[in-house]
């Protein structure tokens, strides 16, 4: 290293073992205090903090120290010594030592920062985003980005070890009418034409399989111009994977191995393999969700048999109309206040449920419920038995169309687990959800549409039903779920033209329409496409879960707000007319006001 | 692996040692030929090619083989056996064996490809680009992308080993008036505003240094909307690096280490360290270029002393006007035909030289030259001596302004080396070029402008000349050059406000103008910026050189043409009016025709 900015140790790594050593450090002043004629400085670099002490004998360097304020950049030469027992600071890694400085150089000054550079601040996030370079100095933010680096490094090591090639695909792509809204890029050289930023490298990775690359991956930036929710960003990163000559199990095994490798390497955690697997039907039935949180049980229980034949017309009518009745058993919550129960009615209403019924199991086993009167003793016993209800339990019922029951009761299950404090934040519960329905019915267009995308392969045993009963056809699709969050998902793709044609037929596309819509992709598949499949993991969300942060903005160096603004650089911004002229476009700001 | 697409070996890896083994292979039919009642198939996968032979006893599988054509995707089960001595094929790695198939399954058919899937084809590049997925199947293209994967993996390993963190920076950035033309992305949520795709992560990486990350790198996609030359793409990839608490030598040492590690790991080549270094002045003086090709010598020789005082007015006048006279000595080219010499006059004219003089040294040491008559014996001897000219040599002179001489004679040096076949294509000659001028004079604006960017640090010893003689101030900037190609470059950045102000003053920017132009960046630097510097390598070009390919398009999976088109997907394309309306823009295609 250069003499001028020499440093031979990092602040956070000094221990008692270094006592007596002469060290050179560089870093930022985290804190300075004067005490007993001495100056104490908490010096911070990427590795951590250590205490530097300097006394007036240091002459010029002491004068430098007197000028120093928070966030000054300094260089310190000194000797490591053990602290006296009573001054040991058990809160920091280097709390047993300090560095007695004989030389202190100020490398740069600093204005007073607009917020404290320390963990756990409750500064307004917009201010943190405006001064992102300062927010990024906080140790917890640095830990997030260091974790992110580690995770991507481990991913690449694993993929490389397993014969995958990282291949870059274009960012300036073709706009397609499918999927979410594209970000567009006007072309200067091709007047009137536009590129689209990729929503994913899906087409390119399949073409790489056609190209014979067999095992591809990429940690790829993707873009979606959608209205942003709390955990969405206009640009996001995914680990994108595709393999040839594989079936579902091959992809899932390979990806389980990846996740186990990454969690072990980055967090030291052992992931149990093979991971649990459940079908989409099971997940929806038991948890009311295709991304079930398995850190707690509280399954959705089918109560149709138990309530059938009672006098409760609401349930009877719904069942007669093809609806169902399900319940969750909230163990030990029988004493829930009435006010809170009313709140739960509002809660399930958000998910479209027209009502919520409850039964509180009394200490003597009797049932307290506004609807108890409609059920005889036998029915009540059957209900308790079916729900595994014991004294002290609370049963919550939703009766509706199956999809509504799943959605409302699935959400209520999570909500009640939170209220009952059933969720162990240190637990990592992985599961695969498989066999997604191939199609869903689009009521507006009165036709079947592909649930994933129309290149997803149907399950072999369901092929005969493609014409006769598309709603019963399942797909070779799979999602990996962690603690109720979808980490990633993928599918085996169709590689044979006859199957592809049957799918197009099922969703009502003629050959010409398919050709027009998927043109060069369809053409490519005629020149020897191998069987293939893949998966993509959402990297931002995965790191967020691993770092136990509440927002993906905490694991992205320079994120955007919900308005897709960069508060720091003030992007997007106005541009010169000349720039627009060169791109053959002009602003059309009044269009929406004209209500055309 | 799944049973259905089982394979337990790869085609290109089978050797005599595998003889007798039962193997399962999957791949593409490279060639099929029928001979002596048997069918021979060259089966290709990513690892290479091996010969499969199947005879009529195989029954159903033989029938399958009869149906197979080029580029069919098949699965083969069979036994490896050594070939007879006379059928060994020394041209392929697996030429000593073949696989006798007992089972052959067709996994997918293929239409006849529009060109041969083999190395060294001379197919029109546009056709190759249209069917890129087929072109990518050719073994030499696969080798390029495999090399690219290896290189980026090695880079990341080295950077990680040296404590660098890979941190992703945004793709949706702010448009700045500096530098090349931006690609713009209209914002839907912020009507009338635009993002710009990054030309480089320069500002973000410097902010990460302010943020205390100390060692950053990223393999980053960058964008420039410039008219494309043969070796340019609208999007390109660079290895971007930044370090804190460093001086020039630290960055250069670290990056030499990287290049040595990568070349050793990917090509098995040992790079000599430390690399040669020369200043920009030396490079321009001796090679007429800031990216000298050192695979051959032929330096530019200053002839001013040798020609002074002669009767040749052309030289005398140019020297009197502050110009110079330089020559190169093309060893052994004295017998160059006159016609070719005339061509060289045209060649240097491209670079702005008004003329070219020559001297052919005869076997007896005498000088044959149209201008010989203007020089007496003593001058001619001095010229020969200065140029190290011996019988058989050709001296080529350019006299002009120093910059013109450098450009013209520098280009001629390369041209003559090519003609004389002096360039050893297997040689790797690295050099650093350092101490670039800080400023260059802009004749249009009548002011000094920064040669790199205005955050580049001037050399410490030149600081006093910032006000008095900016033209003599050199920068802490460095380029790494390989075989006459700039691999990458960077600089130490200014971290202190007083120096930054002096630079702004030198280029005639007021404090307010600087603030407006570099706003949040200037602000960030007031909160404790560490000394820092970095560098960026152009990845596409580096891989191209390593793979010895003539074009970067050969090392990019899905490149664009010189019109920035993707021939395969036909991007850019027309988009819906609705998409434009949502982005608050409309086309303005007639603007240029209206000549506004």
TrEMBL record, chains A, B:
Q: What terms describe the molecular function in GO for this protein? A: aspartate-tRNA ligase activity; aspartate-tRNA(Asn) ligase activity; ATP binding; catalytic activity, acting on a protein; nucleic acid binding; transferase activity
Q: How does it assemble?
A: Homodimer.
Q: Which reaction does it catalyse?
A: tRNA(Asx) + L-aspartate + ATP = L-aspartyl-tRNA(Asx) + AMP + diphosphate
Q: Which Gene3D superfamilies match?
A: Bira Bifunctional Protein, Domain 2, GAD-like domain, Nucleic acid-binding proteins
User: Does this entry carry the keyword Protein biosynthesis?
Assistant: yes
Q: Which residues bind ATP?
A: 224-226, 233, 486, 538-541
Keywords attached to this Swiss-Prot or TrEMBL record, sorted alphabetically, are: Aminoacyl-tRNA synthetase, ATP-binding, Cytoplasm, Ligase, Nucleotide-binding, Protein biosynthesis
User: Which residues are L-aspartate-binding?
Assistant: 178, 224, 452, 493
List locations, semicolon-separated.
Cytoplasm
Species assigned in the record: Succiniclasticum ruminis
Q: Which GO terms describe its biological process?
A: aspartyl-tRNA aminoacylation
User: Could you tell me what this protein is called?
Assistant: Aspartate--tRNA(Asp/Asn) ligase
Q: Where is this site: Important for tRNA non-discrimination?
A: 35
């Amino acid at each position: 290293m250069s003499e001028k900015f020499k440093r031979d140790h990092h602040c956070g790594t000094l221990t008692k073992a270094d006592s007596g050593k002469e060290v050179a450090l560089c870093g930022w002043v985290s804190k300075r205090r004067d005490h007993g004629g001495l100056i104490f400085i908490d010096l911070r670099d990427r590795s951590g903090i250590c205490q530097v002490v300097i006394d007036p004998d240091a002459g010029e360097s002491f004068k430098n120290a007197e000028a120093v304020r928070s966030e000054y950049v300094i260089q310190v030469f000194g000797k490591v010594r053990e602290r006296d027992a009573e001054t040991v600071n058990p809160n920091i890694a280097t709390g047993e030592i300090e560095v007695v400085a004989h030389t202190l150089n100020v490398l740069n000054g600093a204005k007073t920062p607009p917020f404290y550079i320390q963990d756990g601040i409750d500064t307004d996030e917009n201010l943190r985003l405006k001064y992102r370079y300062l927010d990024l100095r906080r140790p917890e933010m640095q830990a997030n980005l260091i974790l992110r680096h580690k995770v991507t490094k481990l991913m690449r090591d694993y993929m490389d070890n397993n014969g995958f090639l990282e291949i870059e695909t274009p960012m300036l792509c073709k706009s397609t009418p499918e999927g979410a809204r594209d970000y567009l890029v006007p072309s200067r050289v091709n007047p009137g034409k536009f590129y689209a930023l990729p929503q994913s490298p899906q087409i390119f990775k399949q073409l790489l399989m056609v190209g014979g690359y067999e095992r591809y991956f990429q940690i790829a930036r993707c873009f979606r111009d959608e209205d942003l929710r709390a955990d969405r960003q206009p640009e996001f990163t995914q680990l994108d994977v595709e393999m040839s000559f594989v079936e579902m199990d091959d992809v899932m095994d390979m990806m389980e191995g990846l996740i186990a490798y990454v969690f072990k390497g980055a967090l030291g955690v052992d992931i149990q393999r093979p991971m649990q697997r459940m079908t989409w039907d099971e997940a929806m039935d038991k948890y009311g969700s295709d991304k079930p949180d398995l850190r707690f049980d509280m399954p959705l229980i089918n109560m149709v048999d138990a309530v059938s034949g009672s006098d409760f017309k609401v349930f009877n009518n719904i069942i007669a109309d093809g609806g169902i009745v399900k319940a969750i058993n909230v163990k030990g919550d029988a004493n829930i206040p009435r006010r809170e129960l009313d709140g739960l009615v509002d809660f399930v209403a958000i998910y479209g449920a027209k009502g919520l019924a409850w039964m509180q199991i009394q200490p003597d086993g009797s049932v307290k419920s506004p609807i108890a009167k409609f059920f005889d003793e036998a029915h009540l016993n059957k209900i308790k038995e079916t729900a595994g209800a014991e004294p002290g339990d609370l049963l919550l019922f939703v009766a509706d169309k199956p999809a509504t029951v799943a959605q409302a009761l699935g959400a209520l299950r999570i909500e009640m687990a939170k209220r009952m404090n059933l969720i162990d934040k240190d637990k990592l519960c992985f599961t695969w959800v498989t066999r997604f329905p191939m199609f869903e019915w689009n009521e507006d267009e009165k036709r079947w549409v592909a649930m994933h995308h129309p290149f997803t392969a149907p399950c072999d045993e369901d092929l005969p039903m493609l014409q006769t009963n598309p709603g019963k056809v399942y797909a070779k699709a799979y999602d990996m779920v962690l603690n109720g969050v979808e980490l990633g998902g993928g599918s085996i793709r169709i590689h044979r033209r006859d199957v592809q044609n049957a799918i197009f037929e099922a969703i009502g596309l003629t050959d010409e329409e398919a050709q027009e819509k998927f043109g060069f992709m369809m053409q490519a598949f005629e020149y020897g496409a191998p069987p293939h499949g893949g998966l993509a993991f959402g990297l931002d969300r995965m790191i967020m879960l691993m770092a136990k942060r509440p927002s993906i903005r905490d694991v992205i160096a320079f994120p955007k707000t919900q308005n897709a603004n960069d508060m720091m650089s003030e992007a997007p911004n106005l541009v010169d007319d000349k720039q627009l002229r060169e791109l053959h476009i002009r602003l059309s700001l009044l269009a929406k006001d004209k209500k055309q």
